[in-house]
Amino acid sequence: xxxxxxxxxxxxxxxxxxxxxxxxxxxxxxxxxxxxxxxxxxxxxxxxxxxxxxxxxxxxxxxxxxxxxxxxxxxxxxxxxxxxxxxxxxxxxxxxxxxxxxxxxxxxxxxxxxxxxxxxxxxxxxxxxxxxxxxxxxxxxxxxxxxxxxxxxxxxxxxxxxxxxxxxxxxxxxxxxxxxxxxxxxxxxxxxxxxxxxxxxxxxxxxxxxxxxxxxxxxxxxxxxxxxxxxxxxxxxxxxxxxxxxxxxxxxxxxxxxxxxxxxxxxxxxxxxxxxxxxxxxxxxxxxxxxxxxxxxxxxxxxxxxxxxxxxxxxxxxxxxxxxxxxxxxxxxxxxxxxxxxxxxxxxxxxxxxxxxxxxxxxxxxxxxxxxxxxxxxxxxxxxxxxxxxxxxxxxxxxxxxxxxxxxxxxxxxxxxxxxxxxxxxxxxxxxxxxxxxxxxxxxxxxxxxxxxxxxxxxxxxxxxxxxxxxxxxxxxxxxxxxxxxxxxxxxxxxxxxxxxxxxxxxxxxxxxxxxxxxxxxxxxxxxxxxxxxxxxxxxxxxxxxxxxxxxxxxxxxxxxxxxxxxxxxxxxxxxxxxxxxxxxxxxxxxxxxxxxxxxxxxxxxxxxxxxxxxxxxxxxxxxxxxxxxxxxxxxxxxxxxxxxxxxxxxxxxxxxxxxxxxx
Length: 664
What we know:
Layout: H1 3-6, H2 15-25, H3 34-39, E1 43-52, E2 69-82, E3 87-96, E4 102-109, E5 113-125, E6 129-132, E7 141-142, E8 152-154, E9 157-172, E10 175-190, E11 193-194, E12 202-203, E13 206-222, E14 226-239, E15 243-246, E16 254-256, E17 261-275, E18 278-291, E19 294-299, E20 303-305, E21 308-324, E22 327-340, E23 365-377, E24 382-395, E25 408-421, E26 426-439, E27 464-478, E28 481-494, E29 501-516, E30 521-536, E31 547-563, E32 567-581, E33 596-612, E34 615-628, E35 635-637, E36 643-645, E37 649-663
Parallel strand pairs: 7-15
Antiparallel strand pairs: 1-2, 2-3, 3-4, 4-5, 5-9, 6-8, 6-36, 9-10, 10-13, 11-12, 13-14, 14-17, 15-16, 17-18, 18-21, 19-20, 21-22, 22-23, 23-24, 24-25, 25-26, 26-27, 27-28, 28-29, 29-30, 30-31, 31-32, 32-33, 33-34, 34-37, 35-36
C-alpha cells in the first residue's frame, strides 16, 4: 500500500499542543442534547505532526511526504446552518501544511442558491533516482553533453494547482442554472529522452508549464415526469514551452512539445417517465476540437500549423420498463461519430514508401454500441436474466501501413444468469457469457511486402471467441458474520493466424468477510487472486514465441475495538504481489527474459483516546515495504552519461499523534 493511504492517518501532535487545546476548550463542554446532536451538523478541527523515518520515493509520490523528516498537518471541517433561513456555510480543509492540500468554501441557501470556491494541490515526485550532467533541466534550452564535473543528482517533480469557482441558482420552480469554472496549472519537470541522429538515446528532461482552463454551464429542468439538462463545456490547453532547444545536438536540435488546443461541446440530456414503471433517457452532444498552434519548424512546403479540427457527434437513447410484474426490460443504444476534418497536406519531402508518404493521416472513427436485457422472476425464488451486447467500430485505412488493420470490427456478447435466494441468509448467482468478434477483411501491413506469412494482427482487431463464467455468493449465517465470494473465468480463442495472440485465458476470485466478536470488537478480512495468460503464436521452428502471464495475489486483515469508555483501537495488515512473466523461447531469444515482480506490504495501527466528549487524541503508526526486481529500471544508461535507477527495496515508517476537537 502506498503513502497516499498514509495521508488518511491523522498525523502527530505534540503533548504541548494537546495540553494547550485541552485548556482552551475544556470550559466549552456541557451535557449534549441528544436530539440536537442528531439534527445539527458537526464541525471539527485537527492539528498534528508526523514523522517519516526514511525517504519514501515510492510511497511519497503523491502524498506530499516524500522525504525523511517532520511534517505538520491540519484538517478543518466547519459547518454552520441557520435554521430560520436555511442558510449554510461550509469550510473544509484537508492536509493543510502538506503539498497535497485542499480547501473548499461553500455558502448558500438550501433550495435557492449557492456558490463555492475551491483550491487543490497535487504533487508528483518521480520514483526514480536521476544522476546527470545535463544543464538547464526545467527550462526550454538544454546543454546535453558536457564535462563529467557537471554530473549531480537531480530530483524530478511536478506540482499541480487547481482553482475552481462556481455556483447554482433556482430560476423558478423546476428550473435551475449551474456554472463552474476551473483553472489547472502544472509546473515542474519530468523524464524525457530523444534519439539525436544516429546516437543512442540522450536524456533531456521535459519542462512542464501547462495551463488548462475549463468552463461548464448547465441549464436544468426537473418536472414530475420530464427532466432535462442543456449545457456547454469548454476546455482550453496552453503549453508555456512550445519546444526544447538542444544547444549541442544538430539533429534534431529542437524537440516539439504538446501544442496548444481547445474544444467546445454542446449537449442535451434528459429522461421522461411514461408511466411509474416505464422510463426513457437520452443524450445528444456535438463537440468541436481544434489544434492551430504553430509548428516549431515550418514543414515542407512551409505549412505553419496543422489546421486540426475534429467534430464529434454523440447520440444515446435508453429504455427501462416493467410490462409485467415479473418481467423487467432494459434497452440502450449509443452512437458516436468522430469526423476528422484536419486538412491533409504533405509535411515532409520524402520518397513515398510502404509505410510513410509524408502526408498526415486523418482519423475518422465511428462506434455503435447496444444493450438489451430482460429479467424474469421464476417460481421458487429463482430469477433469470438474459442479455445481448453489441459493439461495432469503424475506422480509416490508408495505403501506407506499418501494421495490419481492418476497416470494421463488431463484437456480439450473449449473457445468461440465474440467481436465487437459497435461504434467508444465503444468495447466489451463476452467469455464462459468450462473445464473438469479427469484422471486415484484414488489410495486411505493407512493410513486409510479399512476405505475407509474417504479418501481425493487433489483438484488439483480431477475430476472437470468448467464453466467460461468473459466480457470486453472499452468506450471512448470523447477524455478526457476513461472507462474500466472487469468481470469474474466461477463455479466449484468436483466429487470424500470423504473429500475435493465439490463446488467452484467465481466472479471478475474491473473498471477504466480517465478524463481530462483541459489541465492541470486530474483524474483517479479504483475499483475491487474478491470473491471466496469453500465448503468442509461433509460425515456424525459427520463430520466437511468447507465453505471457500476469499474476496478482493480495490479502488483508483488520481489527477494530474499544477498551473501556475512553479507548478505540485498530489495525490493518495488507499484502500484494504482482508477477509479469514473458516466457520467451526460440531464436533469437532462447535465453529468455526474467520475470518481473512487485511486492507491497503495509501495516497500520491506531489508537484514539477521548479526553472529553468532544476532544480526542489519536496515535498512529504505519510501516510500508516495497520491493521489485524490475530489470528494466534497475539501471538505465544514456549516451550523455545520465544514469537512472531505483532502490529495489524501499521501506519506511510513519509515526505520530494528533488532536481533534469537534463541536456543534
